[in-house]
Every structure is written in C-alpha cells, then in structure tokens.
C-alpha cells in the first residue's frame, strides 16, 4: 500500500509540511507521481523504525470531490481568491488551474463535507 504525504502526516501526527521536508531532504523515501509524492508502507516503516500499527476500521468515511469553475477572473481576483482559499484550506486537498487567455479558474477541492462547504462559502463570497 502506498500513502500520500497527507496520509503519512496523519499517521505520524505531523504537519504535512514536515513530511514534505523529510521527503525533500531524502530522509523519507518517496516516489513523485505527477505533482504528488507516494510513500510505500515499507519505506514508511523503515523511516519510523517500527511496523505500522493497524488503524481501527472506521465505520464510515465521507469525502467530497468538487470542481468549481469561475469565469471572468482577473489576475488580482485570482491572487485574492487563492490567498483566501489557501488560508482556509486546513484539512482539504486543493488544486487551482488558471487559464489567463480565457480568464477562467478551475478549483478542485477534496475533503470532508463541512470543510468543503466552508471553502465553497469563501469562493461564493469572493466571486
């Protein structure tokens, strides 16, 4: 099984930036897939020096995947929206793609329904 940086951060009770730093420094072996890193279970166990404890099975996990398209977005609007979303993105995975020629922004948000709803309220308020 492979883990994302976010999953490793959750497992080790660390901040995502800390785990990324370990990967960049070469202290934690990872494979880059596109724009993300994947860490194998064996490499994670080698890093921690112990086998991973089995996590109790959760009865239910809910995650929302949302794509938001915003047209007629100027560069200053993009910067303002990006800053606001980055500040409110705790616990979310988010990517943005801006097409300057079309002045079009796509935002991909993955996370819990509540946190995703909070991010969507930020988008609504700023657009």
Automatic annotation (TrEMBL):
<protein>
    <submittedName>
        <fullName>Helix-turn-helix domain-containing protein</fullName>
    </submittedName>
</protein>
<dbReference type="InterPro" id="IPR041657">
    <property type="entry name" value="HTH_17"/>
</dbReference>
<dbReference type="Pfam" id="PF12728">
    <property type="entry name" value="HTH_17"/>
</dbReference>
<feature type="domain" description="Helix-turn-helix">
    <location>
        <begin position="3"/>
        <end position="47"/>
    </location>
</feature>
<dbReference type="InterPro" id="IPR010093">
    <property type="entry name" value="SinI_DNA-bd"/>
</dbReference>
<dbReference type="InterPro" id="IPR009061">
    <property type="entry name" value="DNA-bd_dom_put_sf"/>
</dbReference>
């Amino acid at each position: 099984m492979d883990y994302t940086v976010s999953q490793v951060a959750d497992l080790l009770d660390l901040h995502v930036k800390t785990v990324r730093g370990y990967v960049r420094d070469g202290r934690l072996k990872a494979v880059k897939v596109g724009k993300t890193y994947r860490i194998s279970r064996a490499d994670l166990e080698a890093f921690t020096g112990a086998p991973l404890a089995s996590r109790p099975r959760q009865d239910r996990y809910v995650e929302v995947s949302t794509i938001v398209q915003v047209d007629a977005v100027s560069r200053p609007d993009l910067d303002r929206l990006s800053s606001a979303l980055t500040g409110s993105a705790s616990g979310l995975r988010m990517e943005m793609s801006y097409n300057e020629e079309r002045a079009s922004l796509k935002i991909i948000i993955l996370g819990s329904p509540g946190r995703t709803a909070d991010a969507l309220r930020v988008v609504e308020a700023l657009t």
